[in-house]
Amino acid sequence: MNQILETNRLTLREMTIADLDFISSMLAHPEVMQYYPKCYSRAEAEAWIQRQIARYRSHGHGLWLVSEKETNEPVGQVGLAPQVVDGVEEPEVGYLIHRPFWRRGLASEAAAAVRDYAFGVLAKPRVISLIRPENTPSQGVARKIGMQPEKRTMYAGLEHIVFALAKA
After folding, report:
1. Is 23 exposed, middle or buried (0-12, 13-18, 19+ CB in 10 A)?
2. Helix (H) or strand (E) holding 43
3. Which of 10, 36, 142, 154 gives a 20 to 30 Å CA spacing to 161?
C-alpha cells in the first residue's frame, strides 16, 4: 500500500478495496454523513473507493485512508481531490473522520499535512475546502489550518462556503 504522508499520530495512504469494511461503515453513519445528502450503501462506498483509485491514477492524489500510527486502526479519510467550482478546477483539502474518533484533533492534523503537501510537494498555488454553511465543525478545521471563507457557491446542488488559502 502506497503511504503518502505521516504526522505525529497518523499515516495517510492510498485506499484499496480492502478498506471497504471501514469506508462503508463510515459512509453509512448518520452523524458522519449529516452534512451530505444521504448515507451511502456498501455498493456506493465501493464506488467511492474506486473513484479515489481513479484519482490516484489520473491526478496522483485523492482522498487517502488515515490510520493511527500506534494501532494502525483506520480513523477516516483526508486528502486532496480536484473539484470544479464555478467552472474552475481547484485542489480541495477534504476530510472526513469516523464518529468514534471525533474531538481529538485528527482532522486538523491530517488536513494540515495535506495542505503542506499540496503547497510543498505539488506546488499548488492555493487550496480550497467546500463546506456546507451549517457544518460548523468542518469550518473550524478549515480555519485551524489557515483557510478563510471566500464566497458561497452551489456545488452538487447544495449551497457551500468556499474556504480558501493561497500559498504563502
Report:
1. buried
2. helix 42-59
3. 10
Q: How far apart are CA 34 and CA 69, in angstroms?
A: 28
Residue type, 157: G
What's the pLDDT at 2?
77
Contact 66, 76 (CB under 8 A): yes
Name the burial class of residue 85, with classes exposed (0-12), middle (13-18) and buried (19+) by CB atoms within 10 angstroms of its CB. middle
Please report the sign of the dihedral spanned by the C-alpha atoms of residue 18, residue 21, residue 24, residue 30: negative
Closest C-alpha among 36, 4, 1, 9 to residue 107: 9
Q: For the chain, list residues with pLDDT below 50.
A: none
The alpha carbon of 145 is separated from its chain's Cα centroid by a whole number of angstroms, namely: 13
Give residue-wise pLDDT tens across range 25-47: 999 999 999 999 899 999 999 99
Under a CB-based contact definition with an 8 Å cutoff, are residues 62 and 80 in contact? yes
